[in-house]
Known about the structure:
With 98 residues, the protein is mainly alpha-helical. The chain has helices at residues 2-23, 28-42, 55-64, 86-90.
Amino acid sequence: MKVWLACFVLLFALAELFQWMKQFSLPLPIYILGGAFLAIASNYDKLGGLRWLSHDRVFINSASQPSITQSTAQPLQSVSFTTAPAAEQMQPRAKESK
Length: 98
C-alpha cells in the first residue's frame, strides 16, 4: 500500500510541476547566457584559444603526448586509381574455366 501511495504522490507532484512549467517562461537573454555557459562548461577541458587559462595544462599535456620528430615522420606517397568507363563496369564478367 505504501508503494502505491508513494507512486501516486510522485505522479501527482510531477503532473503539477509540468502544469506550472508550461506557464513559466524566461526572457531570451537568459537562454543565450545559459547556452553560452553550457558551451563553455562542456568544452572546458579543451580551452583551445584561451592560453592564459590553460598555462599549467600545456606542460602536462605536452609531456604525456608523443611528438613526431623528423626521423619518425615519413613523406606522403600519392595513390592514383584508374577507373573504367561505366559501360565496362556494367557488363558481367565471363566465368573462367580451369
